[in-house]
Amino acid sequence: MNLLNLGILAHVDAGKTTTVEQMLYQFGGLRALGSVDKGNTQTDFLPIERERGISVTASSVTLEVNDLKINIIDTPGHVDFTGEVERTLSVLDGAVLVVSAAEGIQSQTERFWKALREMNIPTIVFLNKIDRMGCNPEEILQALLLELSPKIVPINIFTNPGNTNVSVAVCHISEDSILELCENDDGLAEAYLENGNSEGAMTSLSRQTTDCTAFPLIYGAAALGIGIPELISAIETYLPASPPSPNGDLSGIVYKIEHGTSGKIAHVRLFDGTVQNRDTVTVFRHGAVPFQQKVTQIRRLAGAKREDAGLAHGNEIAAIYGMTGVKVGDMIGQELHRSYSKIATPLFSVQVYGQDGKENQLLQAISELSDEDPLMEYSWNPNERELVIRIMGKIQLEILQYLLQERYGIAAEFSAPSVIYKETVAATGTGTERYTMPKPCWAIVTLTADPLARGSGFRYESAISGSVLQHRYQNHVEIAVAEAIKQGRLGWEATDVLFTLTAGESHKFHTHPMDFFLATPIAVMKALEDAGSVLLEPLVKLRLTADEALSGKLIGDIIKMRGEFDSPVVRGGKLEMEAIVPVATSMDYAIRFSSLTSGQGIIKSDFYGYVECPLEIGTTAKRRGVDPLDRDKWILFKRGALS
Q1: Could you count the other beta carbons within 10 Å of the beta carbon of residue 276?
Q2: pLDDT tens digit string along 126-183?
Q3: Contact 495, 422 (CB under 8 A)
Q4: What is the Cα–Cα distance from 616 to 39, expressed in whole angstroms?
Q5: Do the Cβ atoms of 611 and 567 come closer than 8 Å?
Q6: What CA–CA distance (Å, rounded) separates 626 from 582?
Q7: Helix (H, G, I), strand (E, B) or coil at 52
């Protein structure tokens, strides 16, 4: 039996979870059809998901159709949980992107489509809710062709849209779609353009779907079960599946972590080989030394259920117990080089307050939850008893507050969200640290910091050979640099900077394994200080559609928010405009915009990037912990001698 690991993606409320429920009901032996409104679907099984009617975690279920086993991963659609989707993308063979025929292309629709294209994941589009009153499926199709891809190919048709009498039927590929397919298929082009022969169109669509140069589209109404058989047929026909691969060298990736009554559970997509109970596997992590982990139990995933399996083969997804040291993104068996698409960027931080006497329990709980969501990084300042986390938005905070109470019995409160700024270097700077006293110790490090183009992120290179400084110590330097830049001279994470190790020295007798972890942060801070720091603030791109009469008010709002905008375009009495605005001034603008347009306007928001910001407009951050430039105190701290 062939295997297909399939992701279901959509903007929130597009009908994604209902689509999965219907797939299970019609083809998976599900006896009773669940409902999001009733809170009894298979993939939204957490109490908070059923209460709120939204997915907050990626959930897996299995469906067998003919000779195909489909591992379906239902992903969250709300922007606050985009990190779950980002992590899931790395394990998919194919995807279904659900689009609402009522709301059309929404911000998450575009974000997910871009990520799927960047990662070359074969994709089927399911145009849902064609039963919704007032919908216009044909208009949405034209928008999809214009805004996403002209190679989206409808393979069924609809009648009576906008009411419960809607129906769909299989159709031949249209002439316009055949011409689009011809652009990537010389054989089809020759047969069709010369003889009008389109018999090879379906075969061409199948190949081009696998190649990510074309994308089948299915019309449907999931709430009524309409279009689901056609969707399943398209998944069987167009998306690439593979048999289990048990015989090669073990390789897999951890894409999700959860904590249950049996301890830490690693959700793993295997690509090759076999892993079974009681195996010891090697774990690879970027920037870290490989380490060993013991597998105690392997289970198959089925929504809230976990079925004992004992082993798992390549191309399967499994829940592995016992690997307490793993994190999301870790690779097991061997190191893999896979592409990723960055679609989630936490832009806010909050301070977390727990009950008196429960600080340690709160810290442990946040640590576990950060394991499950690596984007929710946290920092703990023991001197000031201050716990700060990074978040995507307010809905995430509500879910976090619920989890802390229900899972850990902690009643937590949060400060108001603050914008996360970053910093970079103004010029090239150099920092050297000679840590040779008090012995036994010896670590000499010289680092150069060079500015990079905006959006480049952090990079590290070594310009010296292993004969100058042993590779194990160079690895320590690399790890220490990545950790040190989380707090630059302005208190923010340093980005768009290249750190180069230009000199280093150890001692045969005096160097302790931890010496370079102590010396490197001092060299980093010296290099940043020498280079000079520049504050960066985050921006978002807004796309606004509203009544033409609101033009003046919208432009006034953008100016007040320190934004920049393109000239508005007016079509049929509707104004469309794009603007780039700081996150700090636009945090609650969606609420104001909805009020201004009486809920009739459309606002789409996407992270745009970081740009320079004057210090008097932005803000610096208080340093957490000991400053490495306070050298004596830093050495005492790292050597465990600071009270």
Answers
A1: 13
A2: 999 999 998 999 999 999 999 999 999 999 999 999 999 999 999 999 999 999 999 9
A3: yes
A4: 49
A5: no
A6: 31
A7: helix
Q: Cα angle at 553 between 550 and 555, to 5 degrees?
A: 105
Angstrom distance (rounded) from CA 3 to CA 16 = 21
CA angle 339, 113, 101 (to 5 degrees): 160
Query: CA-to-CA distance for 499 and 523, rounded, in angstroms?
Result: 11
**Cα–Cα nearest to 21, from 46, 47, 42, 51:** 42
Domains and CATH numbers, the chain: 2-238 (3.40.50.300), 251-332 (2.40.30.10), 348-412 (3.30.70.870), 423-531+623-638 (3.30.230.10), 536-612 (3.30.70.240)
Of 503, 530, 484, 499, the C-alpha closest to 443 is 503
**Structure-model confidence comparison of residues 168 and 345, the more confident one:** 168
Q: What tokens does 638 get?
A: 């790292």
Residue 266: what pLDDT? 94
Residue among 281, 285, 272 nearest 374 (CA)? 285
Buried b (16+ CB within 10 A) or exposed e, 8-32: bbbbbbbbbbbbbbbbbbbbbebee
Whether the pLDDT of residue 119 is over 90: the answer is yes
Residue 40 buriedness (CB in 10 A; 0-12 / 13-18 / 19+): middle
Whether the Cβ atoms of residue 445 and residue 526 lie closer than 8 Å to each other: no
Contact 122, 240 (CB under 8 A): yes
Tell me the CA end-to-end span of the chain in Å, nearest whole number. Answer: 62
Tokens of 458: 């952090």
H or E segment and range at residue 231: helix 228-238
474 alpha-carbon distance from chain centroid: 30
Euclidean distance between CA atoms 217 and 125, whole angstroms: 5
Does residue 290 have a cis peptide bond before it, meaning omega lies within 30 degrees of 0? no
Which amino acid does the sequence have at 295? V
Amino acid letter for position 638? K
Alpha helices in 74-227 (DSSP H): 82-89, 107-118, 137-147, 175-182, 186-195, 201-210
CA-based nearest residue to 51, from 399, 396, 366, 305: 399
Structure tokens at 573: 């009495």
Q: Do residues 8 and 98 lie in contact, with contact meaning Cβ atoms separated by under 8 Å?
A: yes
Q: Which residues pair with 153 in a beta bridge?
A: 216
Please spell the DSSP secondary structure of 111-152, one letter per residue: HHHHHHHHTT--EEEEEE-TTSTT--HHHHHHHHHHHT-TTE
pLDDT, average across residues 174-198: 91
CA separation (Å) from 268 to 169, 184, 257, 314, 581?
A: 38, 35, 9, 10, 39
Give the alpha-carbon dihedral of 42, 43, 49, 54, to 10 degrees: -120
Residue of 194 and 560 predicted with greater confidence:
560
Compute CA distances 518 → 523, 529, 639, whole Å: 10, 18, 8
